[in-house]
Amino acid sequence: MTVENETEETADPAISPLAHFGAEVRLERERLGITREALGKEACCGYSLVAKIESGKRVPPLNFAEACDRMFPHAGGRFVRLWPLALRWAFPPWFRRYVELEWTATSISMFHAQLVPGLVQTEAYARAVLRTGRPGNLEDLVTARMERQRILTREDPTKLWIILDEGVLRRAIGGKRVMSEQLEQLRTLTETPRHVIQIIPRTIAAYPGSGSPFGLLSFDEGSEVVHVDGFPKGYVLADPDDVTTARDTYDLLKAIALPPDESASKIGSILKECHS
Questions:
Q1: CATH number assigned to the domain covering 17-88
Q2: Residues 6+ apart with CB under 8 A from 173
Q3: What is the pLDDT of residues 40-84, one digit of tens each?
Q4: What is the distance between the alpha carbons of residues 92 and 218, in angstroms, rounded to a whole number?
Q5: Which residue has the higher pLDDT, 272 or 11?
Q6: Which of 68, 75, 111, 138 is the most exposed place for a label (fewest CB within 10 A)?
């Protein structure tokens, strides 16, 4: 039996949207006499995670907010409405605007020469990449990255076009098991009609844009924007000249990279050669 520890410190709900979300969960749960264990069971998580969410120490996944709306009869969808604010808190301030744009984009074109982009990373790959920076909130960062991927599974999913350097597929991030799972996921994406993945073979030593990962976001309404991934911060560009330069560079990368079918075969061959 789990013993409730209701005397533990609770974060001030005014501190952040994350603390506010947790405080609202705790108030409703206690008012209805629901245990953390019961809420965790409904949300497919453990007692410890419920406690950390309530104290404002962990970012809730969407399924947790949905479980709260199911278990609390008068919630009226309140926790799913609060969830985006709580999730937003997990991202660095400079990245939050990009996430908002990403959520509304109808199509995203991405290029990366070093890593699989976060939008298509497996959880294990994401954890291995994020761990290298020794963050104090690793699990929150992983949760936030995984939740971003909901744009690919919603009713009207975002279209993806991804170009990767072959070295990304060969670089052993997290070990063979992690890479095998990641390449299998990429290969599955190549079989999805809405998405395209192209690989730049290692025989091509130099190509435009190789110095910096970047992406182009397109929308039903409004002009395209460019996101440049950098250290220590990325940034968004909306100037028409910058967008044109990025689009021209991306078109050149498409021409240099292997065709989609050959790229899918390349992913499969590297999976067998390097990570099996």
A1: 1.10.260.40
A2: 115, 116, 125, 128, 129, 179, 182
A3: 999 999 999 999 999 999 999 999 999 999 999 999 999 999 999
A4: 23
A5: 272
A6: 138
State which fold the 93-274 domain adopts: Endonuclease; Chain A (3.30.870)
Q: How far apart are CA 23 and CA 11, in angstroms?
A: 8
Identity of the amino acid at 74 = H
Strands 196-200 and 214-218: unpaired
* Phi-psi category of residue 221: left, alpha or beta, with phi > 0 → left and psi -120 to 50 → alpha: beta
Amino acid identity of 104?
T
pLDDT single digits (tens) 211-243:
789 999 999 998 999 999 988 899 999 999 999
Ranges of CATH 3.30.870 domains, the chain: 93-274
Residues of the chain with CATH 1.10.260.40: 17-88
Report whether 172 contacts 180 (CB < 8 A): no
